[in-house]
Amino acid sequence: MQLALDEAWKYQFLTYPNPAVGCVILDKNKQILSIKAHEKAGCEHAELNAIKTALQNLNPKLIIPNEPNLAHEFICKNHNNLLKDALAFVTLEPCNHQGKTPPCARLFAKLKFKKVFIGTKDENDLASGGALFLKQNGVKVQMGILENKAKELIKPFIKWQNGTFKLFKLALSMNGSMLGKIVSNELSRTYAHKIRSVIDILAIGGQTIRKDRPILDSRLCSSKAPNLCIFSKQNLDSFDKEIPLFKVKERKIYTQLPKNTKFIMYEGGENFFKTFKDEMDMFLIFQSSILNTSKSLCVNAKFKPLYKSTFNDDNYGIYELLND
Description:
This protein is α/β, with parallel strands linked by helices and 324 residues long. It has 10 helices and 13 strands.
């Protein structure tokens, strides 16, 4: 289950508005066949992704379609009992409804899995019921494996389903400075750009705009630039319209957060961080392997790490702020 959780965290935030989910498939001899996650809304759910990879590992000649509905149909007709009595570890209860993608619970039953281990129950009335369906169709189910960690994984999903999820992105040098035009490496920046491409709003401070003159787009992942909310004591007319961010086509720029905004990412300097840190649900913090002579971030804050990894020579983590 930890392998499934770790894989899902790699795609945290990128699955918006869907939850991050991971799945590991083992054959009947308990050998791992695949470790996959849901990567993006509209793409294969973690379970379908893992089953597809497992089948192709067992039979490389299988050419399974990439479109989720076609892949589901193909697998149901061509699985040849290759995964009979297999085991699955899934961080979230498999869905039991047809949406943009097919119901994963029915796929496990169709392929005659022996048992499905589940991290936590899906409380969404529309998608829940997968565990019951599996039991009714002869698949054993064990719920609550690493449940607390599984619930931490879906915190963003729960929050943006019921309100607004707020994420603050920080990029720091090894000595803790956030100053400089480019702080983190290209892989780190690409991940941040991928998040920019799916959020509802990118919140930024007027001081950062005047100083850095950024474009704040998603060019590193060749995707759409985010709409902006600029927090400033001065109105928009006071900004130099030659600053690149104002030249992005079809971009909407607000001075107040629109109603019903579900996912906001904040980017800015030290003052911006101090102003909004207590409102944040999570923090995405990159730390490069480079020392510089710039002033380090000076703020009192204690974090709880939820996930840590690397992008080449950058460390990064996803954190919650701990209250004193």
